[in-house]
Each structure stands twice: as structure tokens, then as C-alpha cells.
Design brief:
Layout: H1 2-6, H2 10-26, H3 31-50, H4 57-78, H5 81-113, H6 118-137, H7 140-157, H8 166-172, H9 177-198, H10 200-206
Helix pairs in contact: 2-7, 9-10
Length: 207
């Protein structure tokens, strides 16, 4: 998909653009289950043309399981305990980072509706109103076609532009709960320091 958007192969990108526009224009929701039925029909036709299987599935599965077990034992013997622990730590760190990003994003969305940053919340309100008006007057298929045209022609019309997501950019400017706690702590410390400067007696007692 990225190669199609970057027009590395003009023929491939043009074909992908045409396919996208045709799919968006003629797509109907009932086509999704019909597509699943077509996959079943294809596999059924292949099995019918191939004829009966010479080996029962159970025997094949058992032999495959035995081979897989032998291969897995060999691989496990080759891996050292240190490598396993390192792999587990990397996976755990990746999962924690992903959960942290998702939690931060959800907290930013919550703070958007809480008017934590008022002018950003008002921008979000205006964008929602505009989105509602556009969705009311324009069918979804035309919006998808326009989105596809923008993605495909961005490389041609704006070759030096950096692709970004405006919604995520807006949410990135709204603090999450951890940022708000840090801000409140800093504000409390600043107020305490200001009071100490104003009242030197409190400063002497504190010392």
C-alpha cells in the first residue's frame, strides 16, 4: 500500500487507484458476507476437482505434530536461557509501551470532553459539527473516494509534505492524566515557594 501511495511503480499505483475508486463506487454492505461465501465456494471447488484425499487428515495431522514437536525441541535446545529471558523482556516492554500509548490516548480523549484545554475542546466541537454536516450531505462512498484520491495524489501534488493524522495531532496537544498531575504538583510547588518568599518568617521556620 505504501508503494502504491508513493508511485514507485506508476502502472501499479494507477491500477490500485482505479480499483479503489471502482470498489468505493459500487460497494454495498451485502458484498462482505458474499465475499466470504466466495472463498468457501472456491475451496469447495478445489477439493471437488482434486478428488478424495489419499491420506486421512488425522494421520497427517499426527505426523505433522510429531515433526513439529521434534523441530521445536531442537530449536529450544539451541536457544539459551539468556536469549529466552531477553526475548520475554522485549515482548513485555513492547506490550507495556503499547498499553501506555493506548491509555494516554484514551485519557487525552476524556480530557478533550472535560474541557481541560478549553480552546482545543472548542476546536474539537467545531470539527465535529463540520463532520456531521459533511456526512449529512455527502455519501460515505464519495468521502472514501476523495480520501483515496488525496492519498494517491499527495505524492504528486505535494512531494515534500510529511504524512500525518490531524486527529492524532490534536489529541497529542491535550494532556493526559499523568501530565495533569505533574502540572498540579509543579503549580503547588511554585505557589509554596511564592508564599515563602512573601513571608520570610515561614521560610525561617521551614529552615
Amino acid at each position: 500500500m505504501k508503494n502504491c501511495f508513493e508511485w514507485e511503480s506508476k502502472l501499479q499505483s494507477f491500477a490500485a487507484l482505479v480499483v479503489w475508486l471502482v470498489l468505493c463506487y459500487y460497494f454495498e454492505p451485502w458484498m462482505v458476507p458474499v465475499g466470504g461465501l466466495l472463498f468457501f465456494l472456491k475451496q469447495y471447488a478445489i477439493k471437488g476437482l482434486a478428488g478424495p484425499q489419499p491420506v486421512p487428515w488425522d494421520e497427517t495431522a499426527d505426523s505433522d505434530l510429531d515433526d513439529d514437536d521434534d523441530e521445536e525441541k531442537e530449536k529450544e535446545e539451541k536457544k539459551s536461557l539468556k536469549e529466552r529471558l531477553q526475548a520475554i523482556q522485549e515482548v513485555t516492554q513492547g506490550v507495556q509501551n503499547a498499553i501506555g500509548r493506548i491509555a494516554s490516548l484514551l485519557e487525552s480523549i476524556k480530557n478533550t470532553f472535560n474541557f481541560t484545554v478549553p480552546y482545543l475542546s472548542w476546536i474539537a466541537i467545531v470539527l465535529l459539527v463540520l463532520a456531521a454536516v459533511v456526512l449529512y450531505f455527502l455519501p460515505m462512498r464519495y468521502l472514501l473516494m476523495l480520501w483515496g484520491l488525496n492519498k494517491f495524489f499527495r505524492r504528486i501534488l505535494r512531494p515534500h509534505s510529511v504524512p500525518n493524522n490531524e486527529v492524532l495531532d490534536l489529541l497529542s496537544r491535550i494532556p493526559d492524566d499523568e501530565m495533569l498531575l505533574d502540572y498540579k504538583d509543579l503549580k503547588l510547588l511554585a505557589n509554596t515557594e511564592t508564599e515563602r518568599r512573601r513571608d520570610p518568617k515561614k521560610k525561617q521556620k521551614a529552615s
